[in-house]
Amino acid sequence: MLELDNVSVRFGGLTAVDSVTLSIASNDVIGLVGSNGAGKTTLFNAISGLVRPTSGAIRFEGRDVMATPMYQRARLGIGRTFQIPQPMHELTVRENLIVAQRFGTGKVDHQKIDEILDFTSLTAKANRDAASELALTELKALEVAKALATDPKLLLLDEVLAGLETTGKRRFMGMLKDLHAKFGVGIVMIEHDIETISNLCPRVAVLNFGQLIADGTPDAVFRDPAVIKSYTGAADA
Amino acid sequence: MKSSSLISTIGLLLAAYVAVPLLLGSNQYVMSMVVAALIIGGVALSWALLGNLGGMVSFGHAAFFGVGAYVSALTTVKLGLPVFAAMLLGGVGATISAVIMLPVLRLRGPYFALAILAYAHIFRIVATEWSSLTGGSGGVANIPTLPTVFGVDLASKTGAYLVVLTLVVCCALAYSRIRSSHYGIALRAMHDSEDATRVVGVNSTLLKGAMLLVSAFMAGLFGAFNAHYINFLEPDYAFNSLWVTLPIVAAIFGGYRTILGPVLGAVVVYLVDQLIFKSLIPTGHQLVLGVLLVAMIVFSPNGLLPLLQKWLKKALGKEKKHA
Question: What residue segments make up the domains of chain A, in order of their start?
Answer without folding.
Answer: 2-232
